[in-house]
């Protein structure tokens, strides 16, 4: 056991969970863990590793639960007013055997003189078994008590009726996750649950759920199954859902009720649902799930094969006895039903006990070792040596079994020819044919995978082609828009041409005026001359005042003309760039067309290859069927020699 301790004296919320050795048998002291990492403040998980099948992991976890309960009750006594007390409610799921149904009893291996000192080193002065443990087990079909667990005082039975399922809002949880993620199936299940449910709101606003108790609606699981079988109910209430989904829900629910008969009460109006909620620290609650394991009956198995390691070679006699008791209890109904169990010895099996049990079974129900025909059903066959068996199911179909135990010298080196002479040739031929079939199937799968990849690539090419075509259309629209703008600019330039001519005339007039002013500046500065110049200047200003509005309009037109010329230049440059892009997209389109044609050609070739592979596969299957048919014949069709096994 490994205990991760960071800094011992820094753990404020600690729990003693073991003793740490310091070499040999010297104990260094108690090992502790931080409850903040176990009970949810900083975490909420404990992982325990150990050897499978020895019970060490379960025993250690029970000890940790024992320590948690002691710690919670110690704090409750010392700090009765603690606002956030430590509360522990251990719920233990029993999934194998019924050992956990005796945790309130002393272990037969406990020796006070030998073990008390270890407990006291863990600050447990007076160790005791768990007290006031509550035990739950599935309710028996057709009865009110729980299935037998080996206790003299039987466990409390748990089960659910249809009313219990509705009241607790559990109807949708009856179905597996892969059904619930299907939107159609989940919607139908929710609608059916709503149809069966009656809601009642209390004065404090709490909503209570109840099963509708009117005569038209089912009251038990069996009535619900019968109600689902009536197509008129589907037409009246659930026709908005697909009929196939309705039938699927009926099949799923029927299978659940059949498999859970006892836990799901078929004809009872009330069950005994589990209520594990606790508001304060309580003693352990053990819930049995082991009795729910009905795998052979669930799947209607005719033959069950146990591939080795039935009995551990280290088990003592009482443990082997307990193991055989479990096998008898669990699988005896399976054998009485006429079904068969095949078991081969593994590398961990107790060889002597395995052979002793095999001899005992042969004595109880002897079989001629020279028998080569079909072996009887309803038996437990133990194969400690390579064995060939021919069994027949309830429908009369014969199946061959080649049982090959774990290869040890004692099992394979004695009478080697006797053991292998009959089995190995047929086994080798079967393996060779199966390898060829597996290789052929692998090739077909590879071809199908390649075909799917090509189809995906073809889809991507089609997508890229559509995208390119869309871009070409957008570019064509942009070019058309630019051409319209260019035409508008040309029309605007035509309108501004007369203004340009007037502007040129104004510039000539301004130049002449400037020249006259220069000439006047050179004249003598006498009064007459000044008056005359003033009059002339006044006349010029009068003329300029008449021309000024026209000049302002001319200036604005000249500015608009310059802006229009700039836009025309930019439009021309953009038009050239778009022409280049159109040419590039046209070249890409041509390449894509070539790639698409190549992909289609590959697809046609792959289709031919798949057809050819399927043809070869059918031929191989026919040869295999002929081989298996020949294997069942008493004599060879070619040489007439008798076939022996």
Topology:
Blueprint (H helix, E strand, L loop, with lengths): L13 E8 L5 E8 L21 H23 L12 E4 L17 H10 L12 E5 L17 E3 L3 H6 L9 H4 L2 H14 E5 L5 E5 L9 H9 L1 H7 L5 H17 L25 E4 L6 H4 L4 E5 L9 H20 L3 E5 L6 H14 L15 E4 L3 E6 L5 E6 L5 H4 L3 H5 L2 H99 L5 H105 L14
Parallel strand pairs: 3-8, 4-5, 4-8, 9-10, 10-11
Antiparallel strand pairs: 1-2, 6-7, 12-13
Return residue spans where pLDDT drops below 50 for at least 5 consecutive residues: 1-6, 295-299
Biggest sheet, in brief? 4 strands, parallel
Oligomer: single chain
Count of helix runs = 15
End-to-end span in angstroms?
53 Å
User: What is the total tally of β strands?
Assistant: 13
Helix proportion: 40-55%
- N-to-C SSE series? EEHEHEEHHHEEHHHEHEHEHEEEHHHH
Radius of gyration: 47 Å
- Average pLDDT rating: 79
